[in-house]
Amino acid sequence: MTRTAVIGAGPCGLAQLHAFEQARLAGADIGEIVCFEKQSDWGGLWNYTWRTGLDERGDPVHGSMYRYLWSNGPKECLEFSDYTFDEHFGRPIPSFPPREVLYDYIVGRAKKSDVRQYIQFESPVRAVSFDGAAQTFEVTVQTWEPSGDSVLRTESFDHVIVATGHFSTPNVPEYPGFDRFPGRILHSHDFRDAAEFTGKDLLILGSSYSAEDIALQALKYGAASITVAYRTAAMGFDWPDGITEVPALRHLEGHTAHFTDGTSRDVDAVVLCTGYLHHFPFIDAELRLSTPNNLYPDGLYKGVAWTANPRLMYLGMQDQYYTFTMFDAQAFVARDLVLGRLPSPSPQEMAADVAAWRDRYARVDSIMEQIDFQTEYVRDLMTLTDYPSFDLDLVRQHFVEWEHDKDESITGYRDKSFASPCTGSVGPTPSTTWWDEPDDSLARFLQR
Amino acid sequence: MTRTAVIGAGPCGLAQLHAFEQARLAGADIGEIVCFEKQSDWGGLWNYTWRTGLDERGDPVHGSMYRYLWSNGPKECLEFSDYTFDEHFGRPIPSFPPREVLYDYIVGRAKKSDVRQYIQFESPVRAVSFDGAAQTFEVTVQTWEPSGDSVLRTESFDHVIVATGHFSTPNVPEYPGFDRFPGRILHSHDFRDAAEFTGKDLLILGSSYSAEDIALQALKYGAASITVAYRTAAMGFDWPDGITEVPALRHLEGHTAHFTDGTSRDVDAVVLCTGYLHHFPFIDAELRLSTPNNLYPDGLYKGVAWTANPRLMYLGMQDQYYTFTMFDAQAFVARDLVLGRLPSPSPQEMAADVAAWRDRYARVDSIMEQIDFQTEYVRDLMTLTDYPSFDLDLVRQHFVEWEHDKDESITGYRDKSFASPCTGSVGPTPSTTWWDEPDDSLARFLQR
């Protein structure tokens, strides 16, 4: 019997299990599927933890999720086409839900398709290698006895699907003066509760989603001021009073941050929103994806199959406009490669396909073109499998509108409503604005 | 040629290299010694880093050191008998130095004995196993090319000495309400700068050295209040205004901490001073020390040699009154076992010796008896090798006096002076008290 390991039970891993389960329910022989999850519950990043640094077993904490996080894109852009928000909540809900609502939604589909049966929790994978003679992957997993004693075991698999995400291992640069700064310096990976910074003057380094969202959130929960230093270009939003963008940090001198434009500012804490590393130390070097964060990492056929050994697959390793739906589309492709429903491509075919996509990606030079590029990538995936279709052009249009909305009002864009690409229903306008609503609970959200 | 691997270049690893180098300078054939160090410089914990959580390569940060840390015991109790403080600084200095001074001292001896030649920096050990057929240890080390590409290589060794310390992997318990607490929750491993807590109401969980020192330090640098919750017994010092001990935490409810005596208190941040795990995930299970923190871990002959395979040794794995001198005494024993100067004990001899020490330890039931126990342990080690003798009874007496001093004044005990067990010289009384001296630099310390 074919054995397939799925590593991780977050959005990607759950998408993969769901994809297999759909095939099984339709009568396919899917072989044996085993999902190994390091945490004690499913949901990946969306399974919020207060822990930072190392977990209760001395392992790096997976989560980078923080309290009061709200979706920064319309939920309609990540809606499962086979499990809509309307189906899950029984009625239309606003377009920008907080974490707990999205967690409930992801887990809702996983419960409906009953994929928990495939998951072994508290089972971190410690090693993945390929046995050329046996033509199998050797997967070493750690578990713990009730006594606390740890046990390592190694199992053979015909396929391995890596679904561990790439927003867990922080990229942490150093600047002169960090070692003498009298306050907290943290990476956004360790950011948990904006309330910690109430009344504080905050320095944020970065110019991508984390910088944008943590700046806004810190201000919303009472920070005195936020200075955001960028290396390449300012985000340039029409920031509310209290948030300022400045050029790159040169160094810290005590409390004082000095920037490359010669200005300076006293700050109480520094948040490094400097991104994440694709980090898979448990995977043998010759199987290990090594890439910067971009829309088409090299070495992955259809963005999924490891070209050097395509029975190894990676999900969700792209930089992301599309998220859950892209993971679904990838998971269906991965499943159909495993099941032989898609032909095994030759190395030449894979190389040519990857080269064509990377050529196309090299010509992308604006945000709008990035959106188009990833839309076409998802469209390509969707032609390959029976993943239920949805109005991809509407999603593309939502992304474009959303970018404009952000330019118009960075504090107000989360109050808009979008139409579902699956059902066409339009979320209601919430009764309180995102900016004025401190309560991010599911209960409160459903009342708004 | 005999090959010996030393893992770690902190106080224990440097003591080991120093011990070997002393033998080599005296004409011994010490074989090949290779020290693998994860960090980019030596000194272990004493090599302060501002980083927390994961380092620049996604590895757990080794350091638990924080700014403004001063020795919490008299320096005379940790003085190298072959490299005195008087020799290093050229004159007597006060008895309680801050981190930078101790770092300078440790590194001073390492420079004098020129042991840097043995150390490979930025070389974390990823695996240690034993090849029964070849009777060698296989040590897998990771390094990085200038391009950033990582390389794993495996080398064979006749002996392995683990000197990685056991104050790096935090023991992090969870209490109800942690996931909803609106502020920072950190383990003392991630505590870096007390200035972060100026004006804050702090909750500290624990009743050992970290709790004691972080409570005092937080108050010294301006925290509004510190509540220390103990599980078993209060530390019971005559705390300055602003520090209160209470029974164990039951749960948090928002900002409010509820204790088992029914009292409650609003707090802004929580520091878990809940200790560390002996954590050696890179060592094969059958070679791996697994122990709670105590004065005589099971399975180590003379507290050093892994009884199941005594060519593997561990340094400094005990709970510690004695530190640098105990590491030295252990390192000399480890060296002489490697060099065959000490006879290889039979499994029966080792078992009997360990059992005798553990029996004796089981009867220890006070702090004074703990001090006596570890004094006798160090004395036993010192009878075995040519480690230069020092006045061990004086050190024991210092520890006893120091415990009394702390009971007398927890803020004042660091202003006392003690006589060197090596030179007899007595450190001068500093011109400012520890409590009133915010500057912990070496330069300032030498002026006081």
UniProtKB/TrEMBL annotation, chains A, B:
Its cofactor is FAD. Pfam families: FMO-like (PF00743). InterPro entries: FAD/NAD-bd_sf, Flavin_mOase, Flavin_mOase-like, FMO-like. GO terms for molecular function: flavin adenine dinucleotide binding; N,N-dimethylaniline monooxygenase activity; NADP binding; trimethylamine monooxygenase activity. Its EC number is 1.14.13.148. It is an enzyme of class 1 (oxidoreductase). Signal peptide: none annotated. Keywords: FAD, Flavoprotein, Monooxygenase, NADP, Oxidoreductase. Belongs to the FAD-binding monooxygenase family. This is Trimethylamine monooxygenase. It comes from Mycolicibacterium poriferae.
